[in-house]
Queue: 3 jobs
Job 1
Amino acid sequence: MQIDLLSPASFAHGQPHDQFDWLRENDPVHWHDEPEGPGFWAVTRHVDVKAIGRDAATFSSNPTIMIPDEAGGPDLGDHHMMITTDPPLHGTYRRLASPDFVPRAARALQPRIDELAGVIVDQVAARGECDLVEDLAGLMPSYVIAEMLGIPHEDGVALYKLTEAIHSAPESQAPGAGMLAVVEMFNYASGVFQEKKANPTDDLSSRLIASLDDIDFNLFFLLLIDAGGDTTRNLVAGGMQALFDHPNQLARLQADIDGLLPSAIEEMLRWVSPVIYMRRTAMRDAELRGRSITKGDKVVMYYGAANRDRDAFDGADQFDVGRSPNDHVAFGGGGPHFCLGAHIGRLEIAAMLRQILTRLPDMQPAGDAEWLPSNFISGPKHLPVSFTPSR
C-alpha cells in the first residue's frame, strides 16, 4: 500500500479509506516522511486518537495543530490562537466565548437557525438546480457566525472563502495565496475591532474585545470564522453525497425524519469526518503501541481513520442512518479541545437537512462533486444538484 497522507490527491474524493484501512491493520502508529519537514507519527486507531486528544500534558497543541511547522508567518510573540494552546491557558481563552456556545445558548438560537434554513431554501426552490455547497450548505454557518459576531451576512460568506484558501494545499493555488488570505482576514478583523471598541453592542465580537487586545481578537476572529463554517458546510454537503450514494438509507431517512434525523446526523459526522486531522507535539518521551515517541515529535490524529475502526464500530464500513451507539470522534473525541461549536453545528445541520429532505425531496446529483484540495479539511467544494422546482 502506497501511503501518502500529505498530497491533496489522496483526499480528492473524500478520505483515503484504503490507506487508513491498511494503516489500522498493519501500522496504526505509522512513521510518515515529510519532504519539507522532520516527519510525523500518523495515528489511526479510535482508542489511540481519543487517548491522545485527552492527554494535553503529553501531547501539546502548541506551537500548531497543522502538520507543517509554521514558517514565514508573522511573529505573534505572546499571542496565541485558542486552538494552539494547552490548559490552563486554553481554558482561559475558551471561557471568553463558551457562554455563546453552551447548550442553553444554542437552544436559544434554534428558532433563528430554523428561520434562516427556510430563507436559504426559499432562494433556490423555484430554480430546480443549484450548487449544494455554495447555495445551501455553505450559507447557513456563514450567516449564523456573522450574526453572532455582529457583521453582515455577505461578509460572513466572503470571509469563509478566505478560509478555503487558507486550507487548500499550496500547490493547488497561486503562490502565497494562503498567507494573503490570512492577511485579508486580519485586516477585516482589525476593522471590526476598531468599530466594536468604539461602539460596543450585544454581540460576541464586543464581548471578546472587552477582554482581548487587537492581535488576540484577530486570532480569535479567524478561528471563529474558520471553525464556524467547516463542520456544517462540509457535513451537509458530504452527508448529502453519502445519502445519494446510499439511496436505501436516503429513503429510510425521508420516511422517518423525526425519528432518524438525530442518529443520521451522527452517522454523517462519522462517515464524512469533516476535519481530517489534528496535530499534537510530544512534550516528553512516550510509547504508543510499542513505538517510541521522542520529545518534540509530531503526532497526528486522523479522525476519518478512527471513525471507520472496526474495533469501535460494528459494520464500520456500512453507512447506517439509524446507528446507535455512535462514539465517533468527528468533534475531537473529548478532552480540552472538544469542538466549542458542536451544539450549534448540530442545530444548523439538522435545520438544513430537514429543509432539503422535505422541501426538495427528489434532489439528485447533476454532476460530479469537486472536493476541496486539502489534506486538513474534507468536503465538497462544489456539488451540482437538480430537483423539482417548487414555490
Note: The radius of gyration is 20 Å.
Job 2
Amino acid sequence: MSTLRMGKAEFIGLMAMMFAMTAFSIDAMLPALPQIGQELSPENLNAAQLILTSFVLGMGIGTFFTGPLSDSFGRKPVIYAGIALYMVGAVLAWAAQTLELVLAARLVQGLGIAGPRIVSIAIIRDLFSGRQMAKLVSIVMMIFTLVPAIAPLIGAGIIAFTGWRGIFAAFIIFACLVTGWFGLRLEETLPKAQRRPFEASKLKGALKDMLSYPVVRSVLIVQTLCFAVLFAALSSVQPIYDITFERAESFPYWFGLVAILAGSASILNAMLVVRLGMQYLTTVTLVVQVGLSGGMILLTFLTVSLDLYFGLFVFWQFSLFAMAGLTLGNLNAMAMEPLGHIAGLAASILGGTSTVFAMVFAVPIGLAFDGTPRPAAVGVFLLCVAALYFMLKLERTPRVQHGRKTD
C-alpha cells in the first residue's frame, strides 16, 4: 500500500473536490437551460435538457475504461488526461453556436470527467483499506453533498454577470485549480511494479463473469432504473420550477434546500443498513416511491391552490433525491459482493453500464415535459414499479453460493 505524504484532512478535501467536479458540471448548468434553449433551440426549448444527459452519457461511457487504464498507466496520467479532455469539451461548448455542437462538447466533457470521478476512488483504495477507507469515503461524500446544494446558485450568479457561456469558463478555472492542487501535493499512488497491462478482452471476460451471477443481473437492472429516476428528475426539475410554477428566480435556493435535506438520506441509510439489510431498505424505498409518484400523478389531475401544488411537488422532489441515498449505495454493494476477484473491472462495468442505459429511460422522460410534472411523475412511477418487480424477484431467487444459483 502506498504512503500518504500530505495530511489526511488535506487529502479528504482534495478528494472531495475531485468528486465535486462532476456535481458542479451537472448542477451549475440547471439555471442556464432556459437561456440556452431560447438562444440555440427556440423551436424546441425542451431540447436544452439534453445538455445534462449528454454529459452523463459521456461520463458513463468513459467509466468503462478509466479504471482499467489507471491500473495500466498509473493514477495521475489518467486523471491528467481526463481533466484535459474535460477542459477541451468546456472550450468547445463555450464557442459553440448550435445546440448540437454544445451537446457534442458536453459528451466530450463527460468522457473526460470519468477520469477524476473513477480514479479518485482507486486512489483512496490505494492508500486506505477496510474501516479506514469506509470512514474516509463517508467524510468525503458528506463534503461532496454540499456541492449540488450550492452549484445552481453559483451557476445563476455566473449567468447574471457573463451569460450562460461563462459557466464553461468557470468549469475550466475550477478544473485548473483542482488539477494544480492534485499535481503539486499528491504523489502517484500506484507504483509501476503493481500496474497491469490494459487488455480489452479482460473487460469482455469480466462482463461475462459478472452476468453469470443471478444477483448481479437483477441488481444491475434495478441500479440502472434507479439511476434513470435520478437523471430524469434532474432533467425535469428546472423546467417545472420555471414553467409550471413560474419560480425560475428562486429555483437555485429551493434546489439547494432540497439537496441539503436529501443528503441526510445517506446518513439515515448508514444508520439503518446494518440492522435492516441492503435488500430490505432498497425494497421499502421503492415501495414508498411508487406510492408517492402515484400520488403525484393524481395531484396533476386535481384542482388545488398553486402554493399547495408547489409544496407537494417540492416534497416529491426531496423524495426522489433522498431515494438515491437510500438505494444506489446499497445496490452497488450488493452487486459487488460476489465480485471481489474482479473488483476494479466490475466497478467500472457496473458504473458504466447502469449510467449509459439509464439515459435510454431518462432522456424520453425529460423531453416529454408538457408544462406540468405529469410526464416526470408517470416516468418515475413506471421506473420504480419495474425496479420493485426485480427486487421482489430477487427475494424469490433460490439460495446462492458466491452469488451463483445453486440447484
Note: The longest strand covers residues 400-401.
Job 3
Amino acid sequence: MLSNVRMQTFLPLPKYFLCSLTTHAARKIIAYYNKSLEPLGLTAQQMMALGVLWREENISLGVFAERAGIGKAAAVTMIARLEAMGMVVRESHPQDRRLNTLKLTDKARSLAPQVADRVAKLTDAIESTIGHESLKILIEGLTAIKNLDL
C-alpha cells in the first residue's frame, strides 16, 4: 500500500540558480536562432559552425573543432552535414596532402549577411532589455565562465 506521506529533502538554496538561469537563457536564444534561421535552411548549431569558417577559412578539421569548442567526432559530423548542404568543401592542404582544409562555398558566403542581420536583431533586443553596460558585463562574465578550467 502506498503512503500518502510525501518525502522531501531540505537542501540549502543555491545563491543564484546559475544552472537553471543559464539553461533557460541558452534554450531561449537557441530557439530564437532556430526559428529565425529556418527560412535560410540553417539551425543554430550550423550557424555557429559556419561562423567559425566565416571568421577563419582554410583551416583543418582539428582547428575547426577547437575553434568551435566541440570534439573531433562532432566536428566530422557537422562538416559532413554542411558539405551535404553545399555550404562547405574539403580541399587538400597545399603543403601536406594528408590534411584537408575547409572552405566555404559561395552559397555559404551569400548567407552571411542574412545571418548577421538575425544575430544583430537578437543582440539589439537583449541590449534594449538589459542596457549596453549590462550586456557588456554579461558577455565578459560568460566569456570568463567559458574559459574556466573546471
Note: Helices lie at 18-37, 44-55, 61-68, 72-84, 106-130, 132-146.
